[in-house]
Specification:
Layout lengths: L9 H10 L4 H24 L12 H12 L12 H8 L10 H27 L1 H16 L3 E6 L2 E6 L3 E2 L2 E2 L42 H11 L6 H14 L6 E3 H24 L4 H30 L6 H19 L7 H8 L5 H30 L1
Antiparallel strand pairs: 1-2, 2-5, 3-4
């Protein structure tokens, strides 16, 4: 990664940021460096196959904005205008900043920025795709809680495999590697990030074979799919597919498994809804009317909250209160119709065309996203009462 500061000046720049003796161009220089570190990590995640961008096209500006969004929390200040996290990280440790060179400071910065980027990506993914995040979480729980599954990390990606044991009545036929029923220990020099949760990787993994194409795995999985299956059962079925086919690796990327499960669940739900739409009973019509009524009640409730808690107390202007209400109404309308809705920022920008992501984070995000979570919570609780 190419730095944006002159060689030999990074320790002095970090020192100025921590002690608040910087000038505006120096702060800009530092922000650019932090953003570049985060951006390089996001690009690497895309290279190894992760879907980072909201939009499918290769819009470079979106990745730049996402990197800035991920590191924005590092620039929080206290009442004295000091950068809290940078001071704690660089001044709270045993190392003296002035005694470190550019390379050592850059290593420390990368550690901090990448950790923060990972945390923010997790939050963003949960907001973008809560159903997908739930499936990933359940897969990891299944791996952690069962001796039947294990996993390993390689090149930043997590892979799942079946351990040497029983699965639904059949025994995995695995090679006896050392003649006594136990796997041989890993060779010296085995990569640390290629070890499973139980230690060194077993030799029966077909690592030299190509990965199964996602389309092929999905087709095989659909033939065995059962809507009532827990995540662990779906995982077992997919691993059974690759275990039985010697042409492919007998382990699977976690993100591929989660994607297939999510897309299959969505398609089954759409099929059921399509079948129901063609024959709407009077009771179904009454339910739809009741859902619309509950939606209007939630909107009235959020309008009152915006007025009493924010407009009447001069925290936001009446004009902004109206914009917040209209945007939230649009989001709730998408939710009630089962549509995929955009991010909070993209929705708000439709009513505030000149709103930049930087301005959104600084001025709108805290209040608006709190209100957005409220309407989702209230609408969900209302529907649960109805059901």
């Amino acid at each position: 990664m190419e730095t944006v500061v002159k060689s030999g000046t990074l320790p002095q720049l970090v020192n100025k940021i921590c002690y608040g003796t910087y000038k505006e161009p120096e702060l800009t220089e530092f922000v650019n460096l932090v953003q570049k570190i985060s951006l390089s990590y996001l690009k690497y995640q895309e290279v190894i196959g992760k879907h980072i961008r909201w939009e499918r096209n290769k819009n470079m500006g979106e990745l730049d904005d996402l990197a800035l969004d991920c590191v924005a929390g590092l620039f929080m200040r206290n009442e004295n205008g000091e950068f809290i996290q940078f001071r704690k990280y660089f001044l709270g440790g045993p190392a003296d900043i002035d005694s470190l060179d550019d390379a050592e400071i850059l290593v420390l910065m990368r550690r901090l920025v990448i950790k923060k980027t990972k945390q923010e990506l997790s939050r963003i993914f949960k907001e973008r795709d809560p159903e997908g995040a739930k499936i990933v979480r359940n897969i990891k729980v299944a791996i952690k809680s069962s001796e039947e599954f294990s996993s390993f990390r390689e090149m930043g990606r997590e892979y799942i495999y079946t351990t040497n044991g029983r699965e639904n009545g059949f025994r995995l036929e695995l090679p006896n590697l050392n003649g006594n029923g136990h796997d041989r220990p890993a060779r010296n020099g085995q990569a640390r990030d290629s070890e499973s949760k139980n230690g060194a990787l077993p030799k029966y993994l077909r690592r030299a074979q190509p990965a199964i194409p996602e389309r092929s795995l999905r087709g095989e999985y659909l033939s065995m799919y059962c809507p009532k299956d827990p995540v662990s059962a779906g995982l077992r079925k997919m691993l059974c597919v690759v275990k039985e086919d010697p042409r492919y690796q007998n382990f699977l990327p976690l993100d591929m498994v989660a994607r297939i499960m999510r897309n299959t669940n969505l398609e089954m739900v759409r099929d059921r809804l399509s079948a129901q739409v063609s024959d709407v009973s009077p009771i179904d019509a009454l339910k739809l009317k009741e859902i619309e009524k509950r939606k209007l009640e939630v909107l009235e409730r959020i309008q009152n909250k915006i007025q009493s808690q924010y407009v009447d107390t001069d925290k936001i202007s009446p004009e902004k209160g109206k914009i917040y209400y209209l945007t939230l109404a649009e989001i709730l309308d998408d939710i009630s119709q089962g549509k995929k809705y955009d991010s909070y920022y993209k929705h708000l920008r439709r009513f505030m065309p000149n709103l930049s992501q930087r301005a959104y984070r600084a001025q709108e995000r805290t209040i608006f996203e709190y209100l957005g979570k409220l309407i989702k919570k209230w609408f969900r609780e209302s529907l649960m009462e109805l059901l």
